[in-house]
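Researcher: Here's a chain I'd like modeled. Treat it as a single chain, no partners, no ligands.
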Amino acid sequence: MDKIQKFLALVTKKQRQVLLKAFEDIRSGAISRYDVKPLKGYKGFFRLRKGKIRVVFAKTEQGGNIIINLAYRKD
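Model: Modeled as a single isolated chain. Structure tokens:
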């Protein structure tokens, strides 16, 4: 089990549903309605905040996005 799956197992069912919807939007590129900003010092990496949770993702050369990390903002 990778880090993302472990984290999803720890959150509530409602949070999991919201995050899975956000994952779909990240992969499809429909991220305009989220709080997305580029990570400082990391070219091509972005963060999406959803409540207390931060999703780090990178843009791929094919035009899609890949999820790198998922954690609470305090971590």
